[in-house]
Amino acid sequence: MNRYPTPHLAARADKALARNMTLLAHHELHGYGGLGEGIAMQQCADGRRILWLAHEAAPKNFTGVDVTDPRAPRVIVQTELPHMKVRSNSLEVSGDLMAVAYQTQAPGMQPAGFDLFDISKPESPKLISHFDCSGPYSRGVHALWFVDGQYVHLASGAPDFQPRNPLDDQFYRIIDVRNPSRPVEAGRWWLPGTRVGDEAPAPPRLPKQFDTGFRVHNTNVYPERPDRAYIGYIDGGAIVLDISDMGSPRVVSSWNHSPPFNGFTHTVLPLFERNLWIVSDECVQDDGADWPKLVWVVDARHEANPVPIGTFPAPPFEAFARRGGRFGAHNLHENLPAPCSFRSDRIIVGTFFNAGVRVYDTSNPWQVQEVAYYVPAAPSLSPVGAIQLNDVYVDDRRIVYTVDRFCGGLYILEMHVG
Fold first, then answer.
1. DSSP letters of 30-92?
2. Closest by alpha carbon to 315, among 10, 8, 14, 2?
3. Does pTM top 0.90 for this prediction?
4. Residue 10: is its pLDDT beyond 80?
């Protein structure tokens, strides 16, 4: 393992790279090590900690791993999807309830929506209800946010929503689950001009090679501002909605770097005490073809006029662009308001596909510093010949959980940062 690699050494995908992070454990999840963008931790009544993982693709739905001892993770349950053309890319946990998203490969298929499970007995998740989002133009739910036990916030299609462009099929929906057995829609919002019948003109699109759609990805709502939804709207940029009246969300802020950049705003993470947003892109093309995909620092002191003030230092292009698979920003640990979650307005942890998981100190937002990273060696069966770290969760013990997109499974790390 090389702790301070030259670009030449970093380009070797068969070698692990580390700085200020230690691998505690690695679990291949019984050979189903392709994980999506859903990692959540449950604090059980008996004191156990269960890490719930959504799979990137069929046949598996979700896996529960006992990580009470992070050095000895143990799979306690692994579930199946109903068929091979659906994925459960996203999940969240609130107390003993878990919401799991379902997105199909093509519009008009089922199941497309989300399930609610009772996980009070983690070894035996019990289905409570299914919220159906299927329809002739809908693939269902790509990502969801569920932290308060009351509302699920979705990037979703709907049976009554016809996009002007098929790439714009998922918009923002709020679902009331206060009665978990009967979820009902409480509100919705989409970018004007993206639906058939809108009076507004269609938004101008990015060049075809970078056009990934005017649709929603992450939909974060925090207890510090329950009247705000912080939305990554992919090619529509970062959008903040006033949801004090859930039935009529309205835009209060927006910022978009594209054009001239290459689109795909993924996550908007507000640092409330500092009036900053940390905004991540998502890389979606191999071999650096859509570079740069960055993490941005945005000054949000004036909500109606957010201003970018910098980006996180990116891993070196020459070392990683041709290492195999995707290279660039993706998920962040999102400071979830949950009992086991690490929360910081200074330390930010994110995944960068073949550049691993990386830790940043934002004490000086004008000059963010990288303080740690871990890049696993390529899993032996990786179809791209390199690691593709997809998502990350950090618990209150500063233990980092990160997952490979294809086959590498779960990596559990300790970060040694102040």
1. GG---EEEEEEEEE-TTS-EEEEEEESSTTEEEEEEE-SSTTS-EEEEEEE-SSTTEE---EE
2. 10
3. yes
4. no
